[in-house]
Amino acid sequence: MMALTLDHVQIAMPPGREDEVRAFFGVLLGLVEIDKPEALAGRGGCWFAAGERQLHLGVEADFRPARKAHVALATDELDALRARLVAAGRPIGEDMPIGGRRRFFTEDPFGNRLELIEREAGA
Fold first, then answer.
1. What local confidence, expressed as pLDDT, does residue 122 receive?
2. What domains lie within the chain, and their CATH numbers?
3. What does pTM read for this prediction?
4. What is the side-by-side order of every strand in the sheet holding 101-107?
């Protein structure tokens, strides 16, 4: 059987709103922006390192937010991250733990759903 691993995830964003992407994902969530390849730089959007993987935000002209489909970002500092999001006026949706890991949902500036979950022990 072929072994596959996740390399990156891309979510959509409206055109021309990269400053909001950087403020939310970079400043508020603390992800580090990485350079897009030169051949793709002119398309807009932003890429971020997310541990060993990447989170790409790609411009979609007919943008519609993902309300159910979502990215889950794991952290060792779930309570601190929740406090920063609340202080920034971001919506928080509590949910039941999964496998003993606490989690909650929020949304990016464009309405895309995001899950924040405690990192697995030993990960």
1. 62
2. 8-118 (3.10.180.10)
3. 0.92
4. 71-75, 113-118, 101-107, 93-98
